[in-house]
Design a protein that fits this description.
Structural class of chain A: mainly beta
Helix content of chain B: under 10%
Largest sheet of chain B: 7 strands, mixed
Largest sheet of chain A: 6 strands, mixed
Number of helices of chain A: 0
Oligomer: heterodimer
Distance between the termini of chain A: 41 Å
Shape of chain A: globular
Structural class of chain B: mainly beta
Helix content of chain A: under 10%
Number of helices of chain B: 0
Shape of chain B: globular
Largest interface: A-B, 25 and 29 residues
Distance between the termini of chain B: 37 Å
Chain lengths: 113, 117
Amino acid sequence: AQSVTQPDIHITVSEGASLELRCNYSYGATPYLFWYVQSPGQGLQLLLKYFSGDTLVQGIKGFEAEFKRSQSSFNLRKPSVHWSDAAEYFCAVGAPGNEKLTFGTGTRLTIIP
Amino acid sequence: GAVVSQHPSWVICKSGTSVKIECRSLDFQATTMFWYRQFPKQSLMLMATSNEGSKATYEQGVEKDKFLINHASLTLSTLTVTSAHPEDSSFYICSATQGRASNTEAFFGQGTRLTVV
């Protein structure tokens, strides 16, 4: 069965600083990987996704993520965070041919001035 | 991107009553819709998968008689929480896809906050 681990429950970053959110997955083959962002009381918005090909994926709002098969990781990065990036971030994994997504427990991002 | 609308955004109901939550795909036909439950400060837990015109597939541990799902059209799925109890209070989120493979992007509704008193 597929699973996702987000080791960091809460991260605090200064505005303008760089960000990296960690995601590790467990799956027997190459998975489909996603990062979603959730603002308080809202649904989820897709930031980026990886299906195949280039392991460095560009997303919306200046985010990128890199798929590293050897480390079973799909970490999310942003070179310079903005106060509006404060939210909950979820990593998710899907299996090819299976429509279900499995979500990690999320990382709450706080931005300080 | 495509829009999924969930209604209501929040609802308060008395214990023992039933509550219906609607999930609509506004500008695309949703082959598959998913219902999730999210507890405070926790992740999304998939409750069930529904395909238009067929019975929903429930995840292990989810009571199908308590959480009734209907996907009668390609743009509408409903979740009815029957005989609600305070422990059913939660944030319920739906998502919809146009295909049945996981490389089809899922679009999420804004969620429904259910409080049972």
